[in-house]
Amino acid sequence: MSHSTGQILHDQSEPATDLISFYIIITGIVIAASFIGCWGYYRTILSQTETQKELSSETKQLNATILDAQEKLNTLKWIDKSKGKVQLPISDAINSLVESHTEQL
Fold first, then answer.
1. pLDDT for 3
2. Residue ranges per domain, the chain?
3. How far apart are CA 92 and CA 76, in angstroms?
């Protein structure tokens, strides 16, 4: 404020439009880069989650197949009762085979 006239003196210089424009452009670039980075991170996490779900499903299928195979290998049951065909557990079948070949020697 000027003491003698009572008027408020304002800055009369021109604004630095080049500098303001530069900061606006840099701010826009930073915001765009942040958005793109967040989107890429989101897609990566989403992809990993989908892959884990697929692997989990495949693991369950594989475990079921293994259990089924183990059950078949370790079960004693009739294949054809009229012909006297029996399915032996694999360990019993191996022992029987070894004994029959040992007796032949």
1. 56
2. 15-73, 75-105
3. 9
- Give the 3-state DSSP-derived string for the chain, with helices as H, strands as E and coil as C: CCCCCCCCCCCCCCCCHHHHHHHHHHHHHHHHHHHHHHHHHHHHHHHHHHHHHHHHHHHHHHHHHHHHHHHHHCCCEEEECCCCEEECCHHHHHHHHHHHHHHHC
Question: What tens digit of pLDDT does each residue of 64-73 get?
Answer: 999 999 998 9
Note the pLDDT tens digit of each residue in 17-50. Answer: 899 999 999 999 999 999 999 999 999 999 999 9
Q: Name the maximum alpha-carbon separation found in the chain.
A: 132
Is the whole-model pTM more than 0.70? no
**Nearest to residue 79, comparing CAs of 71, 88, 92?**
88
